[in-house]
């Protein structure tokens, strides 16, 4: 049996520091912070972020309809209350477009842009581990499982059809236990 390498995740301080990097005074900084916040606080995939439509976000009700390219499984998620102001600020500044997150000219953002953006902000934040937009999804899922221990709800939030895909987060959530045991000096 070959062992899969566990994905990298951000510690809470690293995630907070990453979100501090975009300068919200500029439209692109506001947009970039909103995109990273959605990945970190809702577990969205990169494709789900770039394909998000304005009609899929209801800030009044705090709802988000995610149209997944994976298996065409749409799902409805709650937008955390602390994100609604950030998303509303971008909504008011964004150019007219079929997509919620766009260039300043209203064009669809590329996945490559998001990959480079996350990497750039991670470097600015002093995060040494290699991270990608998917790292933000892994971070969300791991923190969610650590706090709730509810793997079935997590499976539905992430849009996984098979629970076995979601169980990686049980292992990731228990890494802190393993690290704590390694640092224990014992009695000998």
Describe the structure.
By secondary structure, the protein is mainly alpha-helical. The chain has ten helices and three strands. α2 packs antiparallel against α4 and α2 packs across α6. The protein is globular, with a radius of gyration of 17 Å.
Termini distance?
Answer: 35 Å
Percent in strands? 5-15%
In the sheet with the most strands, the strands line up as 1-2-3
Number of H- or I-type helical stretches: 10
Q: What is the oligomer described by this structure?
A: single chain
Mean pLDDT: 88
The structure class reads: mainly alpha
User: Over the alpha carbons, how many angstroms does the gyration radius reach?
Assistant: 17 Å
Q: Estimate percent helicity.
A: 40-55%
Write the H/E string, N to C.
HHHEEEHHHHHHH
Summary?
The protein has helices at residues 12-19, 27-42, 46-50, 81-93, 111-124, 133-148, 151-158, 163-166, 168-173, 175-183; strands at residues 57-58, 63-66, 75-78. It is mainly alpha-helical and 188 residues long. It has a three-stranded antiparallel beta sheet with strand order 1-2-3, with no helix packed on it.
List strands and helices in order, with pairings.
Elements: H1 12-19, H2 27-42, H3 46-50, E1 57-58, E2 63-66, E3 75-78, H4 81-93, H5 111-124, H6 133-148, H7 151-158, H8 163-166, H9 168-173, H10 175-183
Antiparallel strand pairs: 1-2, 2-3
Helix pairs in contact: 2-4, 2-6
